[in-house]
């Protein structure tokens, strides 16, 4: 009988002795989760750039890719420009081919042509799409031969001088988004004249005041991967 007695103390002793520690623990978990969500939503692209494995120096792949490319694939990484402040950069087979440090990038569309068999760059240039004349770019695109990889990165404004002819020329290289590219959009792309369908290597962000990361520009874009070598 005595052992079954439950005194009023058992019912009324609230909070039980362990609850203070438990509450503190839950509060800590709550703070950690909130912090992670907060950091995650504000640094989406940074998480890729500063992947823990990259930080710790474990990544030794070409162009800093997280996975190495299979034989007969070329490693590439393209960053668009950030607002009108930091220029774009392109790495191909572990070689930086265009970047602000190399001083060969500029406002508008930055384009590098790489031989799809040998992986060597044969031409590069940038075309001012805000103030420039679209004719030189039309000429440049029309002369691209088959078997050439075309790497493209936007900087500041790639869209103001876009016209139907340019949209078609980029679409012919496998672009999905050239049709809608506009003022201050972010765009990165790898294409080729011999693609039979749309290129799988493309990212696009519309300039949208509601969702822009920077004041007046969307977030910069990063595109990386392995592109198959064209074997004769
Ligand atoms: C790529 O380089 C090879 C070897 O030099 C050459 O035969 C081929 O024509 C080049 N391809 C293009 C598209 O220029």
From TrEMBL:
Superkingdom per UniProt: Eukaryota
Keyword hit for Transmembrane helix: yes
Similarity comment text for this entry: Belongs to the FAM3 family.
Any one GO cellular component localisation term in the record: extracellular region
Transmembrane segments: 20-42
Species classification: Eukaryota, Metazoa, Chordata, Craniata, Vertebrata
Protein's cellular compartments: Secreted
Major location (coarse): secreted
Key word Plastid present: no
Residue ranges annotated for the ILEI/PANDER domain, each copy included: 107-193
Protein name: Protein FAM3D
Annotated keywords: Disulfide bond, Lectin, Membrane, Secreted, Signal, Transmembrane, Transmembrane helix
Any one GO molecular-function label of the UniProt entry: carbohydrate binding
Native source species: Galemys pyrenaicus
């Amino acid at each position: 009988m005595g052992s079954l007695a439950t005194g009023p103390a058992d019912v009324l002793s609230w909070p039980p002795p362990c609850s203070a520690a438990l509450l503190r623990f839950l509060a800590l978990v709550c703070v950690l989760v909130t912090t992670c969500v907060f950091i995650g939503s504000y640094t989406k692209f940074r998480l890729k750039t500063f992947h823990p494995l990259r930080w710790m120096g474990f990544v030794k792949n070409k162009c800093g890719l997280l996975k190495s490319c299979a034989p007969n694939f070329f490693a590439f990484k393209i960053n668009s420009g950030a607002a009108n402040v930091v220029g774009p950069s392109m790495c191909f087979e572990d070689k930086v081919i265009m970047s602000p440090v190399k001083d060969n990038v500029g406002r508008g569309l930055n384009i590098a042509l790489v031989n799809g068999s040998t992986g060597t760059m044969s031409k590069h240039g940038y075309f001012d799409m805000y103030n420039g004349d679209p004719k030189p770019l039309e000429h440049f695109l029309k002369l691209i031969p088959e078997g050439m990889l075309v790497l493209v990165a936007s900087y500041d404004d790639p869209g103001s001088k876009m016209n139907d002819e340019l949209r078609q020329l980029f679409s012919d290289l496998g672009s999905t988004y050239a049709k809608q590219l506009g003022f201050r959009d972010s765009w990165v792309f790898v294409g080729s004249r011999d693609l039979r369908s749309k290129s799988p290597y493309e990212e696009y962000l519309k300039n949208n005041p509601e969702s822009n990361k920077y004041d007046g520009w969307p977030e910069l874009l990063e595109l990386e991967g392995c592109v198959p070598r064209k074997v004769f």
